[in-house]
Design a protein that fits this description.
This protein is mainly α. Helix content is about 45%, strand content about 0%. It has four helices and no strands. Helix 2 crosses helix 3.
């Protein structure tokens, strides 16, 4: 027995309840989008709807690379031997035990 995939989140349940999968509408594409659709249709032998759905899925999956983290630093003018953590904390807190 084959069961349909059930929507697992509220937005998906709402979308499925409002729209039929056979819904038809008119969509106007920009020139660059039209070229991408036609290229995909030629390369993979897809219909217009299949090509558009494939391109939409690719766009949904695309994640721009995360920016490289760089810790901001500031010159404090201090020379500290960090091998003794307690001493470093004292210096940074302004306690001079020397």
């Amino acid at each position: 027995m084959h069961s349909a995939r059930l929507p697992h989140n509220r937005a998906e349940r709402f979308a499925r309840s409002c729209y039929s999968s056979a819904m038809r509408t008119t969509v106007e594409f920009d020139d660059d989008t039209t070229k991408a659709i036609e290229q995909l249709r030629r390369d993979r032998g897809l219909g217009v709807s299949e090509a558009v759905n494939e391109l939409v899925r690719q766009g949904l999956l695309h994640r721009p690379p995360a920016p490289t983290f760089q810790q901001p630093t500031h010159a404090l003018g201090l020379k500290i031997d960090v091998s003794n953590v307690a001493e470093v904390l004292d210096v940074l807190e302004g306690h001079t035990g020397r």
